């Protein structure tokens, strides 16, 4: 199986966790169950415990950084490049028309054929919305070509191929601010003596500066204005209480796991499921998603951190519920190296498919995947199991969103390149200080938004307002190396409190400028992972007020037609503007021309 999922992100002392790897494994019933087993189950043996799902939400050690309370210094993550790992030998995916294997007689005939070729059955995925089934079979490496040819000639077979990729992790006159301090904005300095911070302040448009942290990324897309539609006196004459999000909307975050104990997530995570396949193709499952790497906790926070807790950050999905999925093994310290090809640094594509199918069964509204790798041919995923799972979700009218990639290539990685998926690239701010793209322009008082040079894009590279563009961009940051001290160059949000070791630890010190709970673990990070998570939360916020957009096609059409033109060569249909999208959906008679 191949490993091709990558994280698209950046940290200070840890290389990016943006690359998510995947390897395929077969599982019955589409890899999902309405009532999953409570205890973890493992079929076969794993070379190490790294490929076993957690048995609790706190089982990894809690390594913490030594950041002091007097600063907002946090671990910074720099984008990791996708790892290229060969397909795991000895595994074939045989795709059938679902009807052709529905009867017990047909299934018996198929099993006999497989045995006669020397193949042995591993797992089956049934993609009911697209009427396809995939049977994963294990065969001797030397016989893969001949077995594939024999099975391809059988009736009902659509195609046969190797499997197992890995992916390496404003008409509104008043804005609405939650009680979350990073969203609100901080004073430049603490009060005399540093014993208590002064009241928060609001300095539009970003509530942040190069030296004072905040959530510029949320203000850039107009989230404060979108939230304002929840208030009757917002100035527009249009209001909807669900503009702060709705708990009836479910966002599935498929990633490295989630810190279910984090104060900004613990009330938001409504469902948890883990799928981790070892290098022999055996899959471990459990109902726990402890996050030893941090990336999944971060993307969950960006998408839907709790806006009702007076701590830390707000997610663009507001009150939307999180359906947490872990598909990555426990990392080792090789994963700190962005060039590492260690299998433990990537997720198996069969686990991603299992998570997608489970999410469909749980009736989620949005699937968010801040991971990628591999390629597509005319919108068809190079990995058949992942591709069919995504097609199944699209057919079930789930909004599917994925990172475009972090290599600066003129092509979008899988699964973002899959037909129907909303691909999201990264925008960033230039403020007169050197950034990761070497982009000149902007100043400390008037930053200029652009598309980060690491952000992958497709064709047409820019077609503002049109859903036929390759995708959309959203804030992702663009630091000049992992020691960049300019807050405008990063995306700051929450991080895991249960890291594998200190190499994966964020900062669990009080919020800037020096008081508050030490439980608010956080990090500075950058990449298209952050962009995709922000767009996923925005989609959930839209669905909270209007279910008409419950499909990837309709959601992309809305987000693209309301996107902002930041005059960048590779911006796709533009930069995400949740304010304009919300105004459109609610029928504001005086919609804004731009959030900024």
What can you see in these coordinates?
It contains 11 helices and 23 strands. Strands 3, 10, 11, 12, 13, 15, 18, 19, 20 and 21 form a 10-stranded mixed sheet that branches. It has a 4-stranded antiparallel sheet with strand order 6-7-5-8, sandwiched between helices. A 3-stranded mixed sheet has the order 1-9-14. The chain has helices spanning 104-116, 144-152, 181-184, 216-220, 223-228, 295-304, 349-361, 384-395, 528-545, 552-561, 578-586; strands at residues 5-6, 14-15, 41-42, 77-78, 91-97, 120-127, 132-138, 157-162, 166-168, 250-255, 269-277, 283-286, 321-326, 347-348, 366-369, 376-377, 380-381, 399-403, 422-430, 448-451, 472-475, 491-494, 522-525. With 596 residues, it is an alpha/beta fold. Helix 6 runs parallel beside helix 9 and helix 7 (349-361) packs parallel to helix 8 (384-395). A hairpin with a 5-residue loop joins strand 11 (269-277) and strand 12 (283-286).
